[in-house]
Amino acid sequence: MKEESPGFEPGECQDNYNWLMPTLHETADWFAIPLTRQVDLELAMLIASMRNPGAFLVYTQGDSCPDNCLFVNSRLRLLDFEGGRFSHALKEGVYGRIHFPTCWCVYRMPERVPLRMEEAYRAELVKGCPQAADDILFYRAVVEACVFWMLDWYHEFPLPTLLEKDRNIVTSTVRQRLLMRSAILAETTEVLGHMEAIGSTVRAIAAKLRAIWPEADYMPYYPAFR
After folding, report:
1. What's the predicted TM-score (pTM) here?
2. What are the distances in angstroms from CA 140 to CA 45, 195, 214?
3. How far apart are CA 46 and CA 107, in angstroms?
4. What would the 3-class secondary structure string for the chain be?
5. Angle made by CA atoms 18, 133, 114, in degrees to the nearest 5
6. What does each of the 226 residues of the chain score in pLDDT, given as a tens digit?
7. Gap between the Cα atoms of 158 and 141, Å rounded
8. How many Cβ atoms sit within 10 Å of the Cβ of residue 104?
């Protein structure tokens, strides 16, 4: 369980993100993958960004999965706000790109689909957060949110347990999801040119895991895209 801070100031999130740095260190150490100083610098940057999103601090639903939405009069409405809190907007904004990190129903999507989702989210975010119109600020935040979810996955499913036994979550396994998201994260850091040292580390970890789990290196598409 993630540690919670006793309170928060305007502009700050409710969470304490101290678990992010040891999570990557412990995961990399398992495969004796050395971490460079740049990795720690990027982790410190990530923690600072998550703790204090500045203009990107918004109230988030916390579990923006497809099954937590309803169409009402041709408009999409979110349900299930039990995890709602003030947090970094892009943690929710990258849900499509990183493939629904808190959801039970996970398959792969064609690349164009999550990018269109992200564009639609950004268009709405700009209405209340003009800084999201700045490409540099926005895409740095996209990378940081994707790194957050990758490390959250390592945190929730520690490698010692996952190496011993896989777990099926209705539509796909934890190993499948981890390998798919690792590839997405590494590519995102490279394409957007931010936190590339962390991206390289995640790619190296995934390469080790693919050698152990060749059967997990495949994620089918959602039925609508088959």
Report:
1. 0.89
2. 11, 9, 32
3. 27
4. CCCECCCCCCCCCCECCCCHHHHHHHHHHHCCCCCCHHHHHHHHHHHHHHHCCHHHEEEECCCCCHHHEEEECCEEEECCCCCCEEEEHHHHHCCCCCCCCCCCCCCECCCHHHHHHHHHHHHHHHHHCHHHHCHHHHHHHHHHHHHHHHHHHHHHCCHHHHHHCCCEECCEEHHHHHHHHHHHHHHHHHHHCCCHHHHHHHHHHHHHHHHHCHHHCCCCECHHHC
5. 70
6. 343 333 334 444 457 899 999 999 999 999 999 999 999 999 999 999 999 999 999 988 777 777 767 778 888 777 766 666 789 999 999 999 999 998 999 999 999 999 999 999 999 999 999 999 999 999 999 999 999 999 999 999 999 999 999 999 999 999 999 999 999 999 999 999 999 999 999 999 999 999 999 999 999 999 999 9
7. 25
8. 11
Q: Which amino acid is at 117?
A: M
Which residue is it, tokens 């609508």?
A: 224
